[in-house]
Amino acid sequence: MPTRGRRISGALLIALAGAALTVTPLPAASAQDRANVSTRTIGLSGESRNIDLLTLSSSPDDADSRPALLVVAGIDATHVTGTRVARHLAERLVSEHADLLNDYTVYIVPLVNPDAASRAAQRPIGSYDLRLTPKPVDHDRDRRMNEDGPNDLNGDGVITQMRIRNPAPGSGLVASHVEHEDDARLMRPADRSKGEVPVFAIMTEGLDDDNDGSVAEDPEGGIDLSRHFPYLWDEFDAVTGDYPLEDPGARALADWMLTRPNLVAVLAYSPHDTLSSIPADGKYDDTRRVPLGIESDDKRAYEQVSEAFVEATGLEKAEGRSNEGSFHGWSYAHLGLYSFSTPLWSVPDSDSDDTEAPAPATDNAGEAEDAETPAGPTMAEIQEMIRIYESGSAEEQEELMKEFNAMPAETQARIMAIASGQPDPQADAAAPEAPASSPRKRSSDINASWIAYADERGEGFVDWETFDHPQFGEVEVGGFVPGFRLNAPPDQIEAIADAQTKFIASLLGMFPAIEVGEPTVKSLGSGVYEVAMRISNTGALPSRPAISEKTRRWPPILIRPQIDDDLVLVGDPIERIDRLEPGQQVDLVWTVRSSQPTLDITITIPESGERSVSIDLSEGN
């Protein structure tokens, strides 16, 4: 096994700095491949860098009228793997799947956050939150900005963490963690219910540069674009922006998407995961309007796509962040698109996967990990259910009882206990393990796997070593290297790109396919005709996700006989179809009066443009 404590390899430094690479069209293998790729700028970042868009289509002039997939990377500039894979993806699709580009368009935005990516190549790793677009923020509210950020105390070129053993009274620090008994490099929260006494206070590596008694409390500010979109946006967090889409780069992407009704699906390469594990279905925010995951009627479609993803990539488990403010959450809940996200890579399996090693307090320079939550509804959801039961409308109460009766007996008992004023039965219980069907591991298992992987590669974790801190005395500096747990090694990018190309080819093959059947005509005499037409979906996915019926962002499929409305004797002059399930057929019948020999019917499908069918009325005689 490689020696522990090795700082960070040159390969990882190059990978992290690689996010700042300028996004340019990739060289293609042939003139035809080059013709299938066009590049344009859809907007500028806050520091006037281009937000580039690659359009992959066999017919660039018709690209915007074909069903399309949008691939977006670099929203979180620390996720360098996403940007690199997106660039390789463009090259592979045009050279290996040109046939798909005859029917579909693939848009790729490889780097949404070029400003943060540019800074990432110029600073010590972790010296500020690499996810952020530059924006001054007065974190400590002293009317000065960026005056007390992290410091590289041990001079190893990265910012990790400090742990302070038994912090002195008056230091302002509170111990909360203990070393794990199986590996002292890992820490876990002290279990006070078992009489454990916390030993260590944990904080970002740094000094008190502004002499206000706090350490690294006012770092360089900015906006985290992965939490900046108007979906469950957190208005009280300093890194989410003053308002959603304040950042011009994020706004440019959103504005461009709103002009593209041909979009069918969105795939984000980001630290979020909705493919190895699909989002929870049927759960909503306090308003009961905004889905926290996906609609129940979209679950089967997401399961199909997830199965295709795992088959193509082999990525059965992945760590994911909370979806609040996420790009893919906004694309789904607000635009009504199929929206997916994957971090592309996770810790490889190792012998330590089953080790009970609780997670460290933080990973990248103070970024808190997602906590385990009890099974079943959250306390906020239960309180909302109680409110509806006590004061909701009759319809709401009826729907609530249906939901309640479908819950497991133990969940019903928990809700009834809380409603009667008793303590939450799960409050003191250990978080249950994920069900066997879930591909996720517990965070404790994940962290044990990560440190085993760091040992295997000889990089990614800085062993704790003492440092004489001018404020706290002897401290220890160490922990996971920022970005190590997020980005694949450079030598794995090609294989990941191959797997993603296979998945996207499979996903495009699952797209809904609206077929217009051959119309029939029957003469009823005196210039009156009965005209019939069948519209069907022969694709593997519904023509639109169920959420689209709520968002109503895009118009329905419109079918209209090109004749004056008063000459349509039976049937609607304009037929509308909002959604077609796979294999579903809709038969449309009109009775029309016409003195003309032909009748044109126009079918407008937002995702694929307009088509016209001409009917020879004389055939009905």
Characterization of this structure:
Strand 7 and strand 8 form a beta hairpin. The chain starts with 9 loop residues before the first helix and ends in a 5-residue tail after the last strand. The protein is of the alpha+beta class. It has 13 helices and 23 strands. Among the domains are: 9-122 and 222-359 and 490-510, Zn peptidases (Aminopeptidase, 3-Layer(aba) Sandwich), CATH 3.40.630.10; 514-620, Immunoglobulin-like. Helix 6 runs antiparallel to helix 12.
In short:
With 621 residues, the protein is an alpha+beta fold. The protein has helices spanning 10-17, 31-35, 80-96, 114-120, 248-258, 299-313, 327-333, 379-391, 394-405, 409-419, 443-457, 493-510, 548-551, and strands at residues 37-44, 50-56, 68-73, 105-109, 132-134, 161-165, 177-179, 187-189, 200-204, 222-224, 263-269, 338-342, 461-469, 473-480, 514-516, 520-525, 528-537, 557-561, 568-570, 575-577, 585-593, 598-605, 609-616. The chain contains 13 helices and 23 strands.
